[in-house]
Amino acid sequence: MEKHLTTVKSSIKAGTEQVWQWITGKARWLFQRSHWIVVYGYAFLYMFTGHNKLVNMETFVKGNKHIPVLGQYAEFIGWGIPLLEILLAIVLVSPWRKTQRWALWTSTLLMGVFTLYIALMLLFAEKRLCHCGGVIEEMGWHTHLIFNAVWVGLGMWAIQRLKNYTI
Amino acid sequence: MTLIKKTTKTLVLGVALLGLAVGASSWTNKIQDNTWYFNSNNPSDITDATKWTMADPSLSGCTTSQLPPLPCQLPTPEEVDSEEALIEHFDTVYDNDADDIKAAAQTRRNP
Prior knowledge:
The complex is a heterodimer of chains A (167) and B (111). Chain A is mainly alpha-helical and 167 residues long. Chain A has two domains: 1-32; 34-162, no CATH class. Helices cover 80% and strands 0% of the residues of chain A. Chain A is built from seven helices and no strands. Chain A has helices at residues 2-32, 34-55, 57-64, 74-92, 97-124, 134-137, 141-162. The radius of gyration of chain A is 23 Å and the shape is elongated. Chain B is of the alpha+beta class. Chain B folds into two domains: 1-31; 34-109, no CATH class. Chain B contains three helices and four strands. Chain B has a four-stranded antiparallel β-sheet. The longest helix of chain B has 29 residues, at 2-30. The A-B interface holds A 40, 43-45, 47-49, 51-52, 55-56, 58-59, 62-63, 66, 89-90, 92-95, 127-130, 133-135, 138 and B 6-7, 10-11, 13-15, 17-18, 20-22, 24-26, 28-29, 77, 79, 91-95, 97, 99-100, 103-104.
């Protein structure tokens, strides 16, 4: 009876170890590739907001005209930003690693510019205008700032991880 | 062969993701939970939130043409459900610009 109990116990222990090994193995596999989640996340985000701005182009350009200093370039910004976002989204999902790395750099830089714009708006602007596209537009300004800052951080981390990635 | 397979897999995944993003964007554009109706015959009232109502006044002559000077229906997000919220919405989204509000309206009419 005791021998049988010991056998059962050791089987459970071996089973638990196997499950644990499987979980840690999968977690390691996922972590090693987690920067791709950031790359594809950026692609989704830019395609989403770029498409949204293009669809609502008239409102977007008119809104840009009210931005202090940059208002005079409203038309250029109105077409340039969504087209750049869509281009970046396409390049980010391309299968060529070097191009992808360049796109991730540019995406993070662009997100940094957006973050700076929001921070300046929060600090200095009396009337805050945001034509950021879709659901994102409905975030509060502070939430938007945190959201963007997190993406800048993730982008920098992913760039670091992609540096020596050869697969 | 493996390289071709891998490249195709990446391309399919990428195209699917971008398609999903476009779908999500179109979907959020369609979700406009509230509709406000302009209830005045004076174009200078467009930025006045008190001249807007959530109940359809059933005014005639509303078209999708850009030319008529008065807005009819204005779609807004769900949270714009009061006069105060509409004032805020006009201020933050349209900078109280009557032309921008008219341009964002779904339909327009003549006085």
